[in-house]
Amino acid sequence: MTSTKVSAAKTHRVRASAAPAERTMEERMEGRSTYAPESYTAMCMDAYASVRDCLDEGKTLIEVEFPAIPGEDADYKAASDVYIDANVQYALVVAQKLNAEMGKNVDVLVPDGIEYRRAKKIFENALGLSSAGVRLNVLDGRKSSMFGSAFGDMLGGKGLRTRKEEERDNDFDSADVFIVVNLSTIELESLEKFADETANGRPLIGLNLQLDTLRADLGLFSFPEKALHYRFLSRFTPAFYLRTRNYSRTINVSPFVINYSGAIFREYPAPWQVMIKQNNGVLACVAENEDRFTLAEAKEEMLIALGINDPDDSPMKKLRSGYKTSTWWEEECDDEESDAWRT
C-alpha cells in the first residue's frame, strides 16, 4: 500500500517538473531559435500568452493562426467538420485561460444558429465544466432557427416565454472579449459590422480564420470587394501566427529534386521569423524581421539557408519566380488604413 502511494507521488512530481516554465518578457521579445510544441494544448497556451500581451497593450483586433490539425498537407485531406470542431475546441481552451488568468468573460462566436446548436451539443460537457464566464454565442445574434425551435418547444411542452429566458438572441452585453471561428469569406462583412457596431471597442480575436486564404477571394464575383482588407482586415494584429508550407526544388545533380518545408512564424511581441522544418520535425529559425515576410520572401530565405537559392542575376531566378512575386494584399497600397497586420 505504501509503495503504491510513493509511486503515485513520484509520477505526480515527474509530470509537474515536465511542465514548461513561463517564458520571461525578454525571452518573448527575442523570439524563438526553435519551435516544437509538445501538443496542441501547449500551442494554445503559447497563443494565449501572445493574446494576453496584445490585450495588455490595448489592441482590440487580434489574429491567431496555426494549423488546425497535424500532418503534412492536412488542410487538403480532412473533412470540414474536423476543422470546425477542432477550432471550436481551441477557442474554448484559450477562452477558459483568459477567464481563469485575466478574469475576462469570453464569448466564442460561431457563424450562425445551425453551427451554434451543433457546437453546443458536441461541446456540452466542456461547457459544463468551464466557468460561467465562457459561453458559445452566434456572430449574427440569432441562436434559434426561425420556425423549428419555436414549434418544437411548444409541442414539447415549453412555451415561448421559457425559451426566451433560456437563450436570448443578440445576447452580447456580458462579454469582455470575443473569439470568432469558422467564418467564410462572405461572412467577413458580418464580422466587420459586428466589430464596429456590437463589439464597440471590446477585443475581438479571430482564431484560425485563415485570413490569407479568405483575402484571395476578395474582389472576385459574388465576394466582398478588396477594400474590405484595406479598411478592416489590415487592422488585425497577428498575435500568434504559424503558417506552414511544403516546397520542392529541382537541381541539376542527384537527387535532382529536393523537398523541404518551413513556416512563417510570429509570437507577439517577438519579430516575424522564417522557420525551416528539420528532419526531427523541429522548426528552426533562419531569418527574422520586424515586418511580415511575404510568402515569396519566406521561401527565398529558406532556399538561402539550404544553400540552393539562385544568384540574384541568374536568368533561372527570374524564370522560377516570374514577373509578379507577391499577392495583391502583400503589396504596399495607399488605400491600406493600417499596417497592424504587417507589424
TrEMBL record:
Residues forming coiled coils: none
Span list, region Disordered: 1-32
InterPro entries according to UniProt: DUF1995, LPA3
Residue ranges annotated for the DUF1995 domain, each copy included: 37-299
Family matches, as Pfam families: DUF1995
Signal peptide, first to last residue: none
Protein name as it appears in the record: DUF1995 domain-containing protein
Organism: Ostreococcus sp. 'lucimarinus'
